[in-house]
UniProtKB/TrEMBL annotation:
InterPro entries: Alpha/beta_knot_MTases, Ribosomal_eL30-like_sf, rRNA_MeTrfase_TrmH, SpoU_MeTrfase, SpoU_subst-bd, tRNA_m1G_MTases_N. Belongs to the class IV-like SAM-binding methyltransferase superfamily. RNA methyltransferase TrmH family. It holds the Pfam family SpoU_methylase. It comes from Candidatus Wallbacteria bacterium HGW-Wallbacteria-1. This is 23S rRNA (Guanosine(2251)-2'-O)-methyltransferase RlmB. GO terms for biological process: methylation; RNA processing. Transmembrane segments: none annotated. One of its GO terms (molecular function) is RNA binding. Keywords: Methyltransferase, Transferase. GO terms for cellular component: cytosol. Residues 40-116 form the RNA 2-O ribose methyltransferase substrate binding domain. The lineage of its organism: Bacteria, Candidatus Walliibacteriota.
Length: 291
């Protein structure tokens, strides 16, 4: 699914413009702090998907000794068509900038990823499908899990992701890299209160299911045909008590071995694809995958 982020989020500012804001703590009152409005996005897939999705890009940087392949040529072609500057830098530059990330010898300097309000996500998802499917991540802390869940959700035709503003993995370069750029094609909403967001979803006709092992219904016995939101919990503690209480029902996956739990992203993947299966494997825009 591809849609221009610039039009969806009404972004009119240039990536060269820096955002001004006043810091409320740690800095004397009245001092304006200039915050750069761009981030570095490493990896071939994240760069390609960011350009395809319309994320505003200041420049693309290649390692000067990079070997050309279909992916690098695609990046060059996209950059040429979009009028984006390409630079070459040495090995030391990449090692200093990305000491712990597999950058694949390329990165883009892009505008920070915007997010939606819950009400806007509901409205936009409703335009894509009369029975939208959303995924709520309740305090997922590890970028590996968040990126994997987002990638699976995008591949399975989900229409949006809801995450808390605090106590969660940041939607940054690690999540983008792990999601293979899928984050560029998913509508994201942030909320300061997951429970309040769930109440808003319910007022708009959504049913909400939480992935848990306690007092739960087998995941294949639940009807996911209407507007539905799946809640995936924290890696160690699962779904928080208040969030779990707000769920309409609880969903479980049978464990048949000696280990008593699944990785959060693996469990989410199983549940997400069960939703997709029951819906006839519809694409995010509502057409059947065979069309």
């Amino acid at each position: 699914m591809f849609f221009p982020l610039s039009s969806l989020y009404n972004i009119n500012c240039s990536v060269d413009v820096q955002c001004e804001r006043k810091e409320k703590s740690g800095i004397s009152p009245g001092i304006t702090v200039i915050m750069n409005n761009t981030v570095d996005l490493p990896g071939k897939h994240p760069v390609i998907e960011a350009l395809r999705a319309g994320r505003k890009c200041r420049k693309i940087v290649f390692y000067e000794g990079i070997e050309k392949n279909p992916r690098t040529r695609e990046i060059e072609e996209l950059a040429k068509n979009l009028g984006i500057q390409i630079q070459l830098r040495d090995k030391e530059h990449f090692e200093e900038k990305f000491p712990h990330i597999n950058h694949q010898s390329v990165y883009a300097v892009v505008e920070k990823r915007p997010t939606l309000e819950i009400e806007d996500l509901i409205a936009e998802a409703g335009k894509l499908n009369p029975n939208p499917f959303l995924v709520i991540m309740d305090k997922i802390l590890y970028p590996q899990n968040m990126g994997a869940v987002i990638r699976t959700a995008e591949c399975a035709g989900a229409h949006g992701i809801i995450i808390p503003k605090r106590r969660t993995a940041e939607i940054g370069m690690s999540v983008s890299k792990i999601s293979a750029g899928a984050v560029e094609h998913m509508m994201l909403a942030e909320t300061s209160n997951i429970v309040r967001a769930m109440k808003t979803l319910k007022k708009n006709g959504y049913w909400i299911g939480g992935a848990t092992m306690e007092g739960a219904t087998l995941y294949t016995e639940v009807d996911y045909s209407g507007p539905f939101a799946l809640v995936v919990g924290n890696e160690e503690k699962g779904i928080g008590p208040a969030v779990l209480k707000e769920c309409d029902f609880r969903i479980s996956i049978p464990l048949l071995g000696r280990i008593d739990s699944l990785n959060a992203s693996v469990a989410a993947g199983i549940l997400i694809y069960e939703v997709a299966r029951q819906r006839g494997f519809q694409k995010a825009h509502g057409q059947n995958s065979e069309d």
